[in-house]
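Tutorial, part two.
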Amino acid sequence: MAMQPQLNTRANVDEVKAADGSPISVLRFTGDITSTSRDVVFGAYQEVPAATRKLVFDFSKMEYMNSSGIALIIELLMAANKSDRSVQSYGLSPHFQKVFTMVGLNKYTTLHPDEATACAAFAE
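Running the prediction step on this input gives:
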């Protein structure tokens, strides 16, 4: 009997304040990001307040991402870009930093070592 794959993706939205007091929404990803993660990932993105222009993607608790997961993140970045939102990211392993750069995601988000640096980048 074949086992059903376990959906091991969680995402939630936190709000923090930028140095100037403006809101920053932080999308925190936990577990795996794969083709089965679409509803969780886009569900969390839908929770971001419409007026929010600053987004941070937190990958620090992400365990695994495959090519379908990367495609999902690309879609998410494109949606944010289309909504005139600025996205900073942090918490990617060196391997995924390299992958993000190779596929050109650094055009849509800047990779940072931690949340404080990512949030501070909006003031630059």
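The chain has four helices and five strands. In part three we will examine how such features are distributed along the chain.
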